[in-house]
Design goal:
It is built from nine helices and 22 strands. By secondary structure, it is an alpha+beta fold.
Length: 386
């Protein structure tokens, strides 16, 4: 699929010939003088939501840059997450640095523009996932990234393609903001509970709300992953290929309504994520994950809402977690239940869950619109970058 005024073959070339690939770095967090300066410092959780990365949550100083492995990246750098949330990317709007979860792509002169490089990365996401490895979390190395090939047209054709794809991206960003507005309503409900604005609440151990499940995958159910945005989802649909072991009979079974704790750090969730399964049939998940059945469906839905908030998840888990070497999460399935949360009494619990469920149905509708726009973009990318 091409614009009619262009012809001729595109050049197939490794990523390394069109962009410099630069890793990230983190200044010593215990040294105050390294932080709070005027240099942007991005983490993977801050990119991928929008095309452009404007301001980071944290900044570093010149001393922090000089005394660490952090690299100063120019405006227009494509910030690419290469750990856990592989393939998420944004374009830096100013000079910046990144942490270790990145490989940053700086377009080489007279070859590709930063905007076109951004769309190349979107195109090769599945290939990046295929080349990724890791047991605790997925990661793609710089060497593997350099080997991936991309097809490059002339500068004039690049500009034409960028113009079209940017229009679709504007629609996608608008749709995401609509969804974010609805999600903020749900966050507000849980904030009301935590702040005491809803008086009829009690502090309850999670072990009084959840029962650990020990069912193994003897029926060989389909294998699922657990994501921040999509919850429990078929692994191949989500990641593009299976990362399961050859033998999955020892995997844990998740039934509809069960709560899953992943124990895998990702983005805004440094101690793992907690999700309720909406899949109507039994599925299998990694034996590393904890699986729990709530005492009733209202409790299960409330816990899903509660742990969607990164702050709630972090506050609950950080008292229980011991991090090992290489950032591994050390916690047993039973110990996960050994902390308390605030939960409304039954009358308020029913109201909150029903209201939040209605909002989530609206979010699901808006997500379908977002998915259609994303599919349109992916279709164009697949046809234009053959």
């Amino acid at each position: 699929m091409r614009f009619p005024e262009f012809s001729g073959e595109w050049e197939s070339t490794p990523i390394s010939t069109i962009a410099d690939i630069i890793g990230g770095g983190t200044p010593d967090t215990s040294v105050d003088e390294y932080w709070g300066g005027n240099i942007q410092w991005f983490t993977p959780s801050e990119i991928g939501k929008e095309k452009y990365a404007y301001l980071s949550d944290r900044t570093i100083t010149e001393a922090g840059l000089k005394n660490s492995s952090a690299k100063l990246l120019p405006q227009g750098t494509v910030l690419l997450s290469t750990r856990a949330t592989i393939g998420e990317c944004s374009i830096a709007t100013a000079e910046c640095t990144t942490n270790q979860g990145f490989q940053s792509l700086v377009a080489k002169k007279n070859n590709v523009s930063s905007e076109f490089l951004y769309y190349i990365v979107a195109k090769i996401k599945r290939e990046m996932l295929r080349r990724s490895c890791g047991s605790t979390f997925l990661e793609i190395s710089a060497n593997e990234l350099k080997k991936i090939h991309a097809n490059i047209p002339s500068k004039a054709e690049q500009e034409k393609l960028v113009s079209l794809l940017s229009l679709i991206d504007q629609c996608i960003e608008t749709q995401r903001k609509i969804i974010e507005k609805y999600e903020s309503l749900i966050r507000g409900l849980i904030t009301d509970v935590n702040s005491g604005r809803i008086a009829q609440c009690k502090s309850v151990y999670l072990r009084d709300l959840l029962i650990e499940q020990h069912e193994k995958n003897t029926n060989n159910y389909e294998v699922c992953s657990v994501s921040v945005s999509q919850g429990v989802i078929n692994q191949i649909d989500y990641l593009g290929r299976s990362f399961a072991a050859k033998e999955v009979l020892h995997y844990n079974v998740v039934n509809c309504g069960d709560i899953v704790y992943t124990k895998s750090p990702t983005g805004e969730f440094p101690y793992g994520i907690v999700k309720r399964s909406d899949i109507t049939k039994p599925v299998a998940v990694s034996p590393l994950y904890g699986v729990y059945h709530p005492i009733n469906d209202y409790v299960g839905r409330y816990l899903h809402l509660y742990f969607k908030n990164p702050i709630n998840a972090k506050n609950y888990l950080h008292k229980l977690i011991q991090k090992g070497a290489k950032n591994t999460i050390n916690i047993t399935n039973q110990h996960f239940l050994d902390n308390k949360i605030l939960i409304p009494e039954k009358g308020w619990l029913d109201k909150i869950v029903k209201f939040a469920t209605a909002i989530e149905m609206k979010i699901a509708t808006e997500n379908k619109v977002l998915q259609t726009l994303q599919q349109q973009k992916d279709h164009l990318l697949s046809k234009m970058f053959i």
